[in-house]
Amino acid sequence: MLYMDDNKILQNKTAVVTGGSRGIGQAIAISYAKAGANVAIIYSGSYEQAEKTIKLIEEFDVKALAYQCDVSDFSQVKDTVAKIIQDFSSIDILVNNAGITIDKLVLMMTEEDFQKVIDVNLKGAFNMIRHICPVMAKNRCGKIINISSVSGIMGNVGQANYAASKAGLIGLSKTIAKEYALRNINCNVIAPGFIKTDMTDKLNDNIKDQATNAIPMKKMGNPQDIANLAVFLASRYSDYITGEVIKVDGGLCI
Ligand code: NAP
Description:
The chain has helices at 23-34, 47-58, 74-88, 111-139, 151-154, 160-180, 198-201, 205-214, 223-234; strands at 14-18, 38-43, 64-68, 93-96, 142-147, 185-192, 245-248. By secondary structure, the chain is an alpha/beta fold. The protein has a single domain, classed as Rossmann fold (3-Layer(aba) Sandwich). Strands 3-2-1-4-5-6-7 form a seven-stranded parallel sheet, sandwiched between helices. Bound molecules: NADP nicotinamide-adenine-dinucleotide phosphate. The site of NADP nicotinamide-adenine-dinucleotide phosphate has 30 residues, from α1, β2 and α7.
């Protein structure tokens, strides 16, 4: 019998967290370090923020390195994964968290607006999985966690590109869960609701008030609310869970 009584549940594991420099990814990366994992974070541009996060992770006496890489670029991801394997020897946990929004009503949305969001949010996750799954399959063990959104489940006005990318992540994840179940690789999805980060900070107060009002708990979530579930899904306590989509949204999408 396994009981959740171990606070170093990720000891000796190596985790890769995309978009680990800020917001939800940063909270996940720090929580993994707290649980004993070595952590590689991937960021796109904010070097100083990434270095700050590395310092916070190192406080837990684990190995931590940051890699600049555009997850939407297949060959950059291939090279970065090779570097991570060289630096850490292996990869046990992958969190596809990097994401962007370019919100507009569909009639105002350009082809580029649509493509860019799909490329980062959906193709980015495919690129990471494509290069990391062979390592996990060889080890016959791995945990993949894809960060979707309730927008991908419900749709959302102004987010045709984003909602499509996040719904696509769910189909991708269920397929990976089926293809790799016999290799002991679990693939699950977290669908956050409205979480306090830079992504939601840029919304105007009116939209924030409307969104908060629609949440039964009448409050936004914190990055740590997502990180707590990401720790569980990366640990052995979730070994018999795969292909699931778990909402963390204060009841927004009941
Ligand atoms: P955030 O604060 O805006 O941070 C985004 C992160 O993604 C940053 O670390 C950024 O790197 C990285 N990133 C962006 N484009 C990238 C690229 N092309 N290649 C590599 N890294 C890239 O976002 P967040 O709110 O924490 O969101 C994290 C995830 O949760 C996203 O997938 C988002 O869609 C999802 N989510 C968020 C909410 C919410 O309410 N906040 C709700 C539902 C789902 P730099 O720092 O270098 O720019």
